[in-house]
Design brief:
This protein is of the alpha/beta class and 183 residues long. It is 47% helix and 15% strand. It has a single domain, classed as TIM Barrel (Alpha-Beta Barrel). It has helices spanning 13-30, 48-64, 83-95, 112-120, 134-146, 165-180; strands at 2-4, 7-9, 35-39, 68-73, 101-105, 125-128, 151-152. The strands form two sheets. It has a five-stranded parallel sheet.
Length: 183
């Protein structure tokens, strides 16, 4: 974002030019085969309409790069300050193309209704239950696969740096079998 005459400006031609320059740099380094995760969780600055338009712009640019767009779906949020994000994601479901992958996330419960709704709306749905407890992760996996979802994305709220590497790898070893349906 940059400061304009009337406040912060974004989503203009210069913004997207720089954004796709960065995306191209990431594609060059990471070499994704099919998907590109653009985030969009807890977007604080865009209106509902601007939010959906931003997703459409990202999707159009990624399609040109032969990649499928992946976003967080915040509709399972139930805490008061997060409801604006849940409502924004819900509104976007009505406005964005169906080929945008939706990752329904929640770390303390299985959001079965949100998972079913996203699948009914014909989006590819993935789940993100975090890393605990294993029984909840197993139920989350069952809910996602039960509606034809593709699986789970392992996430955690921790900084990624050399000092956390051992913890991340231990989490993958501990939860990997649960995520795969083996434990």
């Amino acid at each position: 974002m940059r400061r304009g005459r009337r406040g912060w400006t974004f989503d203009d031609e210069a913004y997207w030019e720089k954004g796709f320059e960065l995306i191209d740099e990431l594609i060059g380094v990471c070499r994704p085969k099919r998907y590109f995760h653009v985030g969009m969780d807890e977007d604080h600055d865009r209106s509902y309409t601007q939010y959906a338009e931003a997703i459409k712009t990202l999707r159009a640019g990624l399609r040109k790069r032969k990649l499928k767009t992946v976003i967080w779906n915040d509709t399972a949020i139930e805490y008061a300050p997060g409801m604006a994000h849940a409502e924004k994601s819900l509104a976007a479901e009505q406005a964005i193309p169906k080929d945008v992958v939706q990752i329904v996330w929640r770390y303390d419960a299985v959001p079965a209704a949100a998972i079913r709704r996203v699948a009914r709306r014909e989006f590819e749905v993935w789940g993100a239950p975090g890393q605990h407890p294993p029984a909840m992760v197993a139920e989350f996996r069952k809910a996602v696969l039960g509606v034809g979802g593709k699986g789970l994305l392992m996430t955690t709220w921790r900084p990624v740096r050399r000092s956390t590497r051992k913890d991340f790898l231990a989490g993958v070893r501990r939860m990997g079998p649960v995520y795969r349906g083996e434990g």
